[in-house]
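Module 6 notes. Inverse folding takes a fixed backbone as the condition and produces residue identities as the prediction. Think of it as a translation problem where the source language is geometry and the target language is the twenty amino acids. Below is one complete input and output pair. Work through it position by position during the lab.
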């Protein structure tokens, strides 16, 4: 019997394995898919994510920084390709801060390598969890190669099995378990831009490219080999939707209207578009995240959020560090540590889920809007002038270390102050602006 059974060897599962092994636990990780390090692509969804300091701090603490820098590309801002063909740029931070673009499968592979090096960690692949008995603390797995079923018993079971978690499904049947799931009415397809050859067009490599077109959004994340991974977001139904695209000609025509650059950058665009069915995006909230001292959910299985702030993986890593800290503080009283962990993390993840829905609209509909850009520019200027009194929400979430819930609380106060500055027509460069911000800060205390 191992001390810890982790269902899911994705991003949260591999970091959790390291954290628990370093606490002296024997850990078994059971992953549904083949080993990400051996079968490149295959059933693994192609995806790039960006890492920010929240996630990077945790990865540094487990000794993963060198691997992550070798696999990632720094991006310093968003290059926005407007519908009229013009291009604008928004830096992510005011001090040249960067996010790091990385293929999720590469990051997963690096973390599995590190997990495997820990004494006491055993990784099992192609093992799909099909059943969890919460009382007996056992889980049943089906081997994808032989279909054979096997039962595993552990002192504790951790559900790190992502948004469609099987462990959570079993918690859902317990008394007073709350659960909600909400799908975005849009799906996404990942396209790939190959590294540029001689004479072929190239995109700027150290930024994230965004083509906002109302209901449709195309983005391009740079890779180290100068290729780009490009999720395309479309509505499932209606105009310019998945439903309206059934032939290669229809795909080419949509791109030539909305994203003409793509036609030159991706010669086999229609083939790529039809190669995989679209993937869905959803928000999941549930509580409680634990069952006594026996079972705990973390990462997407506890709180899947839309990717608009690029925080899901960063938050999953923060979960692992927070659990480690709670175990320190609770003297390895597992049930108490699980409760404390949820108390610390759930308000933040609830706040983040709402923010992501809101920011999603900004990204796809407002980012190309002049009034919206003016407001963002004003925020950046106020931050430059009064950094002690005003920090844009994006910067608090992405580059700060405050909890998401605290960042949202501060943002509400700042938003009210900014509204007042605008409605009273106060020049942000004048001392009255500082006095106004100080007033709001004082009232908030
Ligand atoms: C389009 C998109 C863009 C994103 N961009 C970003 C970004 O820029 N930055 C960011 O931080 N996050 C981003 N995210 C979110 C991020 O990918 C997730 O939050 C993160 O992967 C969560 O980690 P996890 O380990 O909880 O879940 P997962 O990474 O989904 O891992 C779960 C693992 O469990 C396995 N599993 C599932 N069911 C079973 C089962 N029954 N038995 C055994 N194993 C099972 C799965 O195969 C998988 O390996 C993005 C997500 C999407 C969809």
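Target side of the pair, the amino acids:
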């Amino acid at each position: 019997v191992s001390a810890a059974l982790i269902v899911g060897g994705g991003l949260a599962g591999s970091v959790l394995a390291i954290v628990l092994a370093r606490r002296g636990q024997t850990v078994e990780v059971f992953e549904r898919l083949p080993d990400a390090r051996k079968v490149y692509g295959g059933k693994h969804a192609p995806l790039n994510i960006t890492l920010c300091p929240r996630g990077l701090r945790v990865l540094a603490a487990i000794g993963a920084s060198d691997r992550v820098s070798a696999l990632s590309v720094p991006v310093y801002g968003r290059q926005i390709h407007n519908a009229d063909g013009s291009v604008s740029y928004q830096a992510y931070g005011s001090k040249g801060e960067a996010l790091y673009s990385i293929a999720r499968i590469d990051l997963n592979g690096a973390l599995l390598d590190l997990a495997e090096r820990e004494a006491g960690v055993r990784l099992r692949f192609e093992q799909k969890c099909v059943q969890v008995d919460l009382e007996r603390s056992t889980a049943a797995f089906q081997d994808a190669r032989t279909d054979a079923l096997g039962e595993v018993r552990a002192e504790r079971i951790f559900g790190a099995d992502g948004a469609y978690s099987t462990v959570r499904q079993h918690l859902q049947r317990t008394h007073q378990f709350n659960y909600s799931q909400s799908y975005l009415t849009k799906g996404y397809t990942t396209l790939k831009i190959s590294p540029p050859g001689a004479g072929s067009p190239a995109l700027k490599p150290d930024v994230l490219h965004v083509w906002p077109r109302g209901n449709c959004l195309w983005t391009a994340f740079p890779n180290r080999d100068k290729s780009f991974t490009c999720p395309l977001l479309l509505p499932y139904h209606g105009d310019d939707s998945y439903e309206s695209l059934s032939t290669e000609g229809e795909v080419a025509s949509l791109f030539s209207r909305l994203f003409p650059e793509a036609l030159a950058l991706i010669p086999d665009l229609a083939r790529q578009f039809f190669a995989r069915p679209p993937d869905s995006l959803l928000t999941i909230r549930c509580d409680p995240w634990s069952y006594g001292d026996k079972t705990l959910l973390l990462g997407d299985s506890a709180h899947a959020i839309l990717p608009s702030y690029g925080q899901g993986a960063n938050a999953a890593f923060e979960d692992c560090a927070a659990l480690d800290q709670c175990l320190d503080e609770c003297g390895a009283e597992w049930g108490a540590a699980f409760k404390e962990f949820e108390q610390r993390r759930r308000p933040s993840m609830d706040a983040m889920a709402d923010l992501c829905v809101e920011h999603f609209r900004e990204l796809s509909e407002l980012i190309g809007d002049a009034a919206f850009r003016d407001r963002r520019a004003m925020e950046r200027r106020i931050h430059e002038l009064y950094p002690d009194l005003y920090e844009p929400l994006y910067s608090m979430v992405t580059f700060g270390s405050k909890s998401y819930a605290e960042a949202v609380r501060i943002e509400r106060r700042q938003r009210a102050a900014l509204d007042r500055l605008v409605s009273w027509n106060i020049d942000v460069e004048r001392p009255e602006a500082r006095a106004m911000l100080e007033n709001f800060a004082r009232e908030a205390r």
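Reference fact for the lab report: The chain has 14 helices and 18 strands.
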